């Protein structure tokens, strides 16, 4: 039945009408189909489950119709489980949707590379050794070790660095006070404070040439270029993330004034009105710390983490992750999944408190990722967040300006998951006038 029809078609078809373009197009389609079949045959059978996409395009089209890509990825996580895979174009992507699987994968030594970022490689002139954030292999290891040891020797994130960060937060408070309670967008002021802290790390201390750390640096993967790359990475990775975090804090406090009042009451009780809060107060401020954790959970500033790349074929949870696969930790899902978090959509700082009011940590709160590439700025960011949040709330009450549009807790998904622009009024609290300047 079918064969005679083809014969009939072949006889009826006017083959003289075929132009070279037709032939070329047919050859191209044939080649693409052959490539696609070969590509499919090469893929291992036990890839993590996931949505099927179109040949060559993968699931790209599914993102076109959605205004909330995180919700779509979250749906896939609910449908396919803790580890899912799909193609974006011809690139295989694996998504890790649960804490245990992120922890297992990101501990694995062969899942620590980064996808290539040609622009950064070109700009830095260092190729694949371009700094810490996208560096791979031995040079990444050396640059990470170097950065962490510089942080350690400066006491970054430790008690000895507290004064530097606290001084910056006092300066921030002063600038906010100058607004005299009138509406302002906190973005620029917060950004300046965060940038200044990173500046003190990078430019505030001089190494001597005899310093062993410095000498090791010059022998190995370190060049003038790669050092510049690391510095650029610290600004890039540390600026927007921390500023965005502080912006979420102010926004959530405006949206939940009763939470703001309770934090202020705890600060007044523990710290008193004679001084600003310090790091050592943290252990006596369980509610305040729970609020910080809940804003981190809801804010999920680096919602999809920073992608890793499989350097060889790796098996995780019985699934093969082939060499060259890009792996994303779905940090937002891990911190917001209905399976792990009771009433996950709600803003409920109490979820981090035990019945007797003690702070309880949750391993699923992977705000800074986890494993071998975990954020090296974590301690610094934690210090800035704690000192920034507590000192601002000790001095001011943040209020939505009258006649301003309703507050939105929706997010913009760009480099970070950030709040939509907003204005705030910082009303100085009583009895802070002379005591805290
Ligand atoms: C609230 C603020 C911050 C958040 C939420 C955050 C989050 C993250 C996350 C999720 C990663 C990816 C880890 C991975 O690949 O698995 C990362 C990497 C990184 N972060 Fe942060 N970060 C913050 C602040 C900072 C600060 C203050 C610095 C430095 C001053 C910094 C420097 C870096 C660097 C250099 C990397 C790359 C590490 C590597 O590839 O080995 N971050 N951060």
Task: Please specify the SSE layout and strand pairing.
Layout: H1 2-12, H2 20-42, H3 60-64, H4 69-80, E1 83-88, E2 91-96, H5 99-107, H6 118-124, H7 137-154, H8 162-177, H9 187-203, H10 212-219, H11 224-255, H12 257-271, H13 286-299, E3 308-309, E4 314-316, E5 319-321, E6 326-329, H14 331-336, H15 378-395, E7 396-399, E8 411-413, E9 417-419, E10 425-428
Parallel strand pairs: 2-6
Antiparallel strand pairs: 1-2, 3-6, 4-5, 7-10, 8-9
The structure holds protoporphyrin IX containing FE.
Binding site for heme: 375
GO molecular function: heme binding; iron ion binding; monooxygenase activity; oxidoreductase activity, acting on paired donors, with incorporation or reduction of molecular oxygen
Pfam families: p450
């Amino acid at each position: 039945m079918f064969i005679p029809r083809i014969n009939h078609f072949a006889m009826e078809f006017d083959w003289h009408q075929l132009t070279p373009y037709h032939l070329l197009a047919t050859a191209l389609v044939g080649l693409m189909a052959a490539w696609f079949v070969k590509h499919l045959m090469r893929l291992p059978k036990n890839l993590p489950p996931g949505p099927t996409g179109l040949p060559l395009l993968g699931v790209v089209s599914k993102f076109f119709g959605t205004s909330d890509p995180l919700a779509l990825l979250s749906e896939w996580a609910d449908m396919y489980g803790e580890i899912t895979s799909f193609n974006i174009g011809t690139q295989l992507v694996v998504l890790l949707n649960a804490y245990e699987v992120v922890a297992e994968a990101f501990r694995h030594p062969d899942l620590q590379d980064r996808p290539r970022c040609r622009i950064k490689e070109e700009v830095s002139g260092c190729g694949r050794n371009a700094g810490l954030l996208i560096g791979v292999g031995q040079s990444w290891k050396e640059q990470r070790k170097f950065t962490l040891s510089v942080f350690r020797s400066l006491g970054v994130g430790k008690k000895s660095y507290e004064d530097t960060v606290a001084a910056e937060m006092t300066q921030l408070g002063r600038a906010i006070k100058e607004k005299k309670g009138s509406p302002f967008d906190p973005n620029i002021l917060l950004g300046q404070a965060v940038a200044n802290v990173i500046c003190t790390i990078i430019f505030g201390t001089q190494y001597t040439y005899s310093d062993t750390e410095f000498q090791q640096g010059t022998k190995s993967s370190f060049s003038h270029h790669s050092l510049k790359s690391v510095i650029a990475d610290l600004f890039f990775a540390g600026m927007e993330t921390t500023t965005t975090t502080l912006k979420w804090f102010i926004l959530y406090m405006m949206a939940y004034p009763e939470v703001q009042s309770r934090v202020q009451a705890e600060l007044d009780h523990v710290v008193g009105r004679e001084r600003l809060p310090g790091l050592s107060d943290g252990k006596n401020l369980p509610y305040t710390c729970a609020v910080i954790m809940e804003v981190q959970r809801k804010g999920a500033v680096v919602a999809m983490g920073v992608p890793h790349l499989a350097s060889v074929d790796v098996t995780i949870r019985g699934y093969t992750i082939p060499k060259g696969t890009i792996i994303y930790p779905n940090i937002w899902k891990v911190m917001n999944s209905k399976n792990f978090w009771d009433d996950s959509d709600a803003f409920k700082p109490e979820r981090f408190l035990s019945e007797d009011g003690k702070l309880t940590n949750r391993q699923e709160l992977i705000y800074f990722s986890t494993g071998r590439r975990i954020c090296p700025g974590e301690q610094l960011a934690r210090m800035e967040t704690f000192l920034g949040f507590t000192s601002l709330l000790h001095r001011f009450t943040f209020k939505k300006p009258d006649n301003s549009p309703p507050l939105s807790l929706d997010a913009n998904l760009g480099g970070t998951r950030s709040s939509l622009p907003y204005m705030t009024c910082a009303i100085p609290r009583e009895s802070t006038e002379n005591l805290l300047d």
